[in-house]
Write a structure and sequence with these properties.
By secondary structure, this protein is α/β, with parallel strands linked by helices. The protein folds into 4 domains: 2-124, Rossmann fold (3-Layer(aba) Sandwich); 146-225, Regulator of K+ conductance, C-terminal domain (Alpha-Beta Plaits), CATH 3.30.70.1450; 235-355, NAD(P)-binding Rossmann-like Domain (Rossmann fold), CATH 3.40.50.720; 358-450, Alpha-Beta Plaits (2-Layer Sandwich), CATH 3.30.70. It is 30% helix and 26% strand. A 6-stranded parallel sheet has the order 3-2-1-4-5-6, sandwiched between helices. Strands 14-13-12-15-16-17 form a 6-stranded parallel sheet, with helices on both faces. Helix 1 packs across helix 14 (354-363) and helix 6 packs across helix 14 (354-363). The chain is globular and about 60 Å long.
Length: 458
């Protein structure tokens, strides 16, 4: 597969890293010689210095033979024009663009990106995707990561293990016997900065980040097994009224009418705009690092503070101050990867990475075959893949224990019509089943082939 990536920033370089490990032919375009030199030296990709929206640059990048263009520069207009040129001149089949400015995303202008106007197949808005990700985390208190799968019938959950987690040091194979109603499969463990694809004999330790797949109807029971029986927050404080904060507040107002919400914004004009855009929320103009402002926002009584300003340091400090005031849980947006590894020890409960969320969203549209969705976990540890089983797949018609799955692969759930099956060794996959699989990064390409049909590639 030949892919052109426009933009060598954090998102572009991470997508290139994922795809390069799978043997894709990648060309990265950026106007910064320093970024191109860095990415060319660290990855097996071709780097090209130039403007991604210029036809001659795209031609030199191989657009005439490309299967896909992924435009993730910092300029929306460059991303959109690059996709337009790739369609009109080079007939690139699949075009993905990151678009940040909310005006372009207004439903009023939904025809803008149609085939007859600006033919972009997939529009990715980091602000909207991050707001969705945080809203999902608010639904499941105690989880640091939440992804709905199979139209919401199944959930991928990430939880931290502490000294108080009830199921520590218990071999995973014994969990079913100890908790007969526990409809989960542990698919990944992140321990001391390394990923573990667990075997039935492995057990959980304090400090682990655990990823499990569960039937959504049994999610409360699953969270209780990990020591989390918190109720969904009814009082929420949001720090930052930018695009993410406003998107999140709008979603919470719409989806969670029982939630009382206050939002703190330091810029007066922006605070006024946010106040006019929201219906029920209270907007406070002030500095979230001012204890009087936190007091006014009711942090002492709030169950959750969500810090999503444009400043990582403000987000971290505001979260810690709010927790010191008595707020029970902190959800903190952090852009710099170097900070993410530090904040867990400080007492921040959930870290949200816009970069990781954007990369994961884009990868969903890169996969081939009968793959419906993809969710990346732990920055390159692996992917949870939702795919339709075809009659021709070697996975169909045999017990899972006999299916010779690649190393680093675990079947987390099978959805057959409206029925969710938590698989065991003797479970047999049938044609047209929806299969939820975790695959370590090295095994992703093999899983893609398991669910592919000839002529279905681009």
């Amino acid at each position: 597969m030949q892919v052109i990536i426009c933009g060598a920033g954090q998102v572009g370089s991470n997508i290139a890293r994922y795809l390069a490990t799978e043997g894709a032919d990648i060309t990265v375009i950026d106007q910064s010689p320093e970024l191109i030199e860095k990415i060319s030296e660290s990855l097996d990709v071709k780097g090209l210095v130039g403007f991604a929206s210029h036809p001659d640059v795209l031609e030199r990048a191989g657009a005439a033979d490309a299967d896909m263009v992924i435009a993730v520069t910092y300029a929306d207009e460059v991303n959109m024009v690059a996709c337009q040129i790739c369609h009109s001149i080079f007939e690139v089949p699949t075009k993905i663009a990151r678009v940040r400015h909310q005006s372009y995303l207004d439903p009023m202008w939904s025809d803008l990106f149609g085939r007859d106007n600006m033919p972009i197949d997939v529009i990715i808005s980091p602000e909207v995707e991050v707001a969705k990700a945080i809203e999902r985390r608010l639904r499941v208190p105690g989880a640091f990561d939440v992804h709905p799968l199979a139209d919401g019938k199944v959930s991928l959950i990430g939880v931290h293990c502490t000294e108080d987690t009830p199921i520590l040091d218990t071999p995973l194979r014994q969990l079913t016997a100890l908790f007969p109603e526990l409809h989960i499969v542990v698919v990944g463990i992140w321990r001391q900065n390394a990923g573990i694809v667990p075997s039935p004999e492995d057990s959980l330790k304090a400090g682990d980040d655990v990823y499990f797949v569960a039937e959504t109807a049994h999610l409360a029971r699953a969270m209780a097994a990990f020591g989390h029986e918190e109720k969904e927050a009814r009082r929420v404080v949001i720090v930052g009224g930018g695009n993410i904060g406003l998107n999140l507040a709008s979603r919470v107002e719409k989806e969670h009418p029982h939630v009382s919400m206050k939002l703190i914004e330091v810029d007066k004009k922006r605070a006024e705009h946010v106040a006019q855009s929201l219906e029920r929320s209270v907007v406070i103009h002030g500095d979230a690092l001012d204890t009087d402002i936190l007091e006014e926002a009711g942090c002492r009584l709030a169950e959750t503070v969500v810090a999503v300003s444009n400043d990582d340091e403000v987000n971290i400090l505001a979260s810690l101050l709010a927790k010191r005031f008595g707020c029970r849980r902190a959800v903190t947006l952090i852009n710099k990867a170097t900070y993410a590894s530090l904040v867990g020890t400080l007492g921040i409960d959930t870290v949200v990475s816009p970069r990781a969320i954007t990369v994961s969203t884009i990868l969903q549209h890169v996969r081939r075959g009968r793959i419906r969705s993809v969710h990346s976990i732990s920055e390159g540890f692996g992917e949870v893949i939702e795919a339709e089983a075809l009659e021709t797949s070697s996975l169909v018609g045999v017990a899972i224990r006999d299916s010779k799955l690649p190393d680093g692969v675990i079947v987390g759930a099978i959805v057959r019509g409206d029925k969710v099956i938590i698989p065991r060794g003797d479970t047999v996959v049938r044609p047209n089943d929806l299969v939820i699989i975790f695959a370590a990064t090295a095994a992703v390409k093999k899983i893609e082939k398991l669910f592919s049909v000839k002529l279905e590639f681009f």
